[in-house]
Design a protein that fits this description.
By secondary structure, the protein is an alpha+beta fold. The chain is built from 4 helices and 10 strands.
């Protein structure tokens, strides 16, 4: 297993490992309520995403399938691609009903040919359509502007017409 990401916050440290056809995310803290609620929400929005999960008094562990494709963050920022991402995000928001992914950053979208899929479901939760759209707008605007795209607002508005 190879450590691919580590992040600490006020709750503790999260580590992500890659290897053996899966990813393993370990949290060195526990929240029993969040753990069980989170698994149910992810299973509703993305059945089969978790291969296995473990909970103890000191750690939460999630084993996730590897999603084939390329991370959208590594791809371009042409208008055609941005429109394709927005179409996917709007479709995802509609399909998930009162639940939402909660983090529509480009690094959480995997592109595999014509298919796209969300990964990293840590921020999922119950959200209104307006909350999901607002979060998606801000996440994607930030990422595409980092890539040099200055017309994101116009493309976003067009995607709502």
């Amino acid at each position: 297993m190879i450590l691919v990401k580590s992040r600490s916050d006020m709750w503790g440290t999260r580590r992500v490992y890659k290897g053996n056809g899966c990813y393993i995310k370990e949290f060195d803290y526990c929240d029993h309520y969040w753990y069980h609620k989170h698994i149910k929400m992810v299973d509703t929005m993305n059945p089969g995403y978790y291969i296995n999960t473990f909970y103890s008094t000191t750690r939460m562990t999630f084993i996730m399938k590897t999603v084939p494709g390329v991370n959208a963050k590594t791809l371009g920022s042409g208008i055609k691609f941005v429109k394709r991402i927005l179409k996917f995000v709007h479709s995802n928001i509609q399909e998930t009903g009162s639940l939402g992914h909660g983090d529509w950053a480009l690094e959480n979208i995997i592109v595999n040919g014509n298919d796209m899929q969300m990964i990293d479901w840590d921020a999922c939760g119950v959200m209104t359509k307006e909350e999901k759209l607002n979060k998606a707008y801000h996440d994607l605007k930030k990422d595409f502007e980092k890539k040099g795209l200055r017309s994101f607002d116009n493309i976003w508005r067009e995607s709502h017409d």
